[in-house]
Design brief:
Strand content: 15-25%
Number of strands: 12
CATH architecture of the largest domain: 3-Layer(aba) Sandwich
Shape: elongated
Number of domains: 3
Order of helices and strands: EEEHHEHHEHHEEEHEHEHEHEH
CATH topology of the largest domain: Rossmann fold
Radius of gyration: 21 Å
Strand order of the largest sheet: 9-8-10-11-12
């Protein structure tokens, strides 16, 4: 039984009281309940609008064991939402790959087998806001160019959405090791005046007290080559600190991109977020152990302890 939105959706029973049907979406990693009106609104959508609906569901902040109700109103709202930035798409896509294939050297079979049965492929489509295998291959090419993966193209059989034989593209996570002798820590965070003190007195202080030099790059001060500079700085760093505190409802796509890139090239990433925003962190990163902080002092102390426990003392004189 095909799902009402995507063929890969799995039927999970009916809800006669609401005249609705329950499904689990491999594409968006969500359990949803769809009404008859929602079905009639979603099923005939054009591919581009289904893509927007999938991205809307994928970004839904509620816990993913809670069912999302899809009705006519939600469908109308979803297809009017703006698509994510290219940086956010890249970061999410790389995050999906890193989650399904966590170890450097893992073979990435994201395009193997039937597309409808491949959960990594299905989730990548919504995470990276793409809707075809061709677009996915283009994203993999970007990851290969930046050094996150090492592609290996083979001629093994697979099937595309039209169940026609085509070529398998297999990749391997880059086995590049982190800069173990580096004294630098790259900091990815929200550039806003309310974060000035948490950075200077919290993050930067913890990094210096641990024997490292903090580096951050303000996107607003540079031109379109900013991502090249950021990737170069991350590659030179011993580890990355990614703080996901942001304006509620406006997640910082750059932070997800920088954390995802660090993970992709096997550089340790320490995740943090202010206590009042932990529920708004995208579920792509909820699998990681975030430092949840309440104020600047709390952030400094917890972050220093995490650095020393997971990274170790740095080569620079430790500032007290």
């Amino acid at each position: 039984m095909y799902g009402p939105i995507w063929p890969s959706d799995i039927h999970e029973g009916d809800d006669p009281q609401m005249d609705a049907t329950n499904y689990f979406s491999l594409r968006t990693k969500t359990h949803y309940k769809i009404t008859g009106a929602g079905w009639r609104a979603a099923n005939p959508l054009a591919p581009s609008d289904k893509q927007r609906l999938g991205e809307f569901l994928y970004r839904d902040p509620r816990p993913h064991d809670r069912r999302i109700l899809i009705d006519e109103a939600l469908v109308a709202t979803a297809i009017q939402t703006s698509p994510p930035s290219v940086q956010e798409r890249l970061a999410r896509g790389l995050g999906v790959i890193a989650r399904y294939y966590p170890d450097p050297g893992d073979k990435i079979d994201i395009l193997s087998g039937r597309a409808d049965d491949n959960p990594a492929f299905q989730e990548f489509l919504s995470a990276a806001f793409v809707d075809t295998q061709v677009a996915l291959i283009e994203y993999l090419s970007v990851f290969a160019e930046e050094g996150s993966i090492r592609p290996v193209v083979t001629a093994q059989g697979m099937y595309n959405w039209n169940h026609q034989p085509t070529t398998t593209v297999k990749c391997y996570l880059n086995t590049q090791k982190p800069q173990s002798e580096s004294d630098r820590c790259f900091v990815a965070m929200w550039f806003n005046e309310q974060m000035d003190e948490p950075y200077t007195e919290g993050i930067a202080e913890a990094v210096r007290q641990s024997g490292y030099y903090p580096v951050r790059v303000d996107r607003e001060e540079f031109n379109e080559k900013i991502d090249d500079q950021i990737m170069a700085e991350i590659k030179r760093s011993r580890f990355v600190i990614a703080d996901f505190t942001s304006e509620i409802g406006n997640p910082r796509g750059g932070v997800y991109f920088e954390a995802g890139f660090g993970i992709g090239i096997s550089i340790p990433v320490i995740f943090s977020v202010r206590e009042d925003q932990i529920e708004h962190v995208h579920f792509d990163t909820k699998m990681f152990n975030h430092i949840v902080w309440t104020d600047t002092n709390d952030l400094r102390d917890k972050l220093k302890n995490r650095i020393l426990a997971t990274i170790g003392e740095g080569p620079l004189p430790q500032e007290n």
